[in-house]
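Sequence in, structure out. Go.
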Amino acid sequence: MKQLLFIIASLLLFSFIQNGKEKHVFKNSYTHCKYETTAGRLNGTYVSYYPNGKKKAGGFFENNYRIGKWTVWDSTGRMRMQRVYTDPFHFTRIVPAVPKDAPVQLLNTSPYEICYNEKGYIHYFPLQERAVMWSKRIWREIRPSENPVLFNNNKLFQLINKGLNEQLFKAYNSKDDEFREELKQIQNTNNLKVIAFKLKEDTFFDKDRLVSESRIIGICPVAINNNTNDTSDLYWIYFPELRTILAQEQVQITKQIKSMDDLFFYRYFYGQIYKESNVYDRPISAYAKGMEAVKESERIEMSLIESEHDIWISLAE
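Output:
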């Protein structure tokens, strides 16, 4: 029976590498997606389908962000929305056609300009609760294999410790990702090796800008003790307070990404989802194992993308 379940899971969830990109197919009763990744990051063609086989959405990702032309159709095959992205937060709407009336035209122009503040990092667009049309809270775990820049020479962990030593921000109990129980004393890190970081983040659709955005709320180092081989979560840091020191650490990855903070802002990382907000407050590992857990993580990832497509269709009606 277990072998049969594994075969079924393998048929529904598989990937293969071609031309340097990893190609994926995800399919369950509600969602059917084909997409490409590089080191886990969405990078390349993305296509999704309705249960009746009709194409639902199609476009391109570049390092986790939409780029170029994106189109969505309804379940009958009728085009409902088409956009052309010039960067993650700016697009031109092609379908439905935007009236030339000036006030309406403004609705197609994002009020958000990407710029650096006096602390050296890109400020977030001010968000009001009324503008949040949809949101989802998730937790990810990022590991060295897909994110070498964050782990080379223990750089990110060193920056966090530097900030704690200089009292630039606070550390909170490893079981408190709501940032209420401050740690008065941080354990000695001499015998620890960081093997992962956990991220807590919110993804939401902003109806003022008509785009989805993800913002990191907290980060937690996961370390192994070199003497005992025990693994533990060390502490949670409120991420917005960490951004100043991350902005001071220079990295040159792309034309846009010049600092460690840019890396996170432009989401040049991969982290597998291990939990989504739920009434039981339980991680995926509490109800799924092995391939089933991998599939569940991917289901949540795809739902974040497809939820935005559902909103686009509703906005076009």
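Check: Residues 133-277 form one domain. The mean pLDDT is 90.
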